[in-house]
């Protein structure tokens, strides 16, 4: 039997807790998709640190174990399972592109070595003599001007295509920021609409005032796993920050990936704090608060790196 949403008065803080929690859920669901698409578009995963993803996955695994041990709501456990699956997909994609590109580089080196050791010195003069003789013989032949004019037209066409590509590249920075902003707004709208539907249908109901839900004691093992998860989340971004700083580049990274991470962490922490600020409840949820709100500082560092030495066209568009 579903609860009547009008049976318990909806307080403003409970409504904000439900909305921010729902927005966080939407952000986490779509979190890894932008980086998967970026890797596919680049045909490489060199931009993202594999150590960052592996430590993050350890955090997700311990988060899942802690949530299951603590007996948290099924939505939280299901989301933790989804995190582990998504992490596995992203790490597998990175390893695949790493192996594939290494094989390509090995084939290129072996081909260059074989060409260098073969009769390359004899082939180039022959080709050069042949092309010069052909160009000289084409001077007085019928149709030679048509061929040369056609080649000039093709050359001009390729130049126009290159200039068009450069224009598109210059506009890509501004359009990327517009797309990212629209994506964030759509995630917020979807999360808010999802909460409203769940509330009106009785799937979500506000907790009673005298039942803050934080008085129940969590198992010590579950809380330890929560702290381990928080440490992993806090430490995961450090290899990525070091990699960006060392290479002075954020190429290959999806800005939307980190924007969704920031949105998910901010709304997740806000959902907890809006629900209750009582001491017992706060201490029970402290590991998850540290893991979510603490990583926002590191995300801010990555945003600064995007602005400092990210995509040059994006920086020009922003400035």
Automatic annotation (TrEMBL):
Gene3D superfamilies: 1.20.1280.290. Residues 108-162 are annotated as: Disordered. The chain crosses the membrane at residues 15-37, 49-70, 76-99, 177-198, 218-236, 256-277. Residues 144-158 have a biased composition (Basic residues). It is a multi-pass membrane protein. It comes from the Eukaryota. Keywords: Membrane, Transmembrane, Transmembrane helix. GO terms for molecular function: basic amino acid transmembrane transporter activity. SMART domains: CTNS (SM00679). InterPro entries: LAAT-1 (IPR051415), PQ-loop_rpt (IPR006603). This is PQ-loop-domain-containing protein. It comes from Rhizodiscina lignyota.
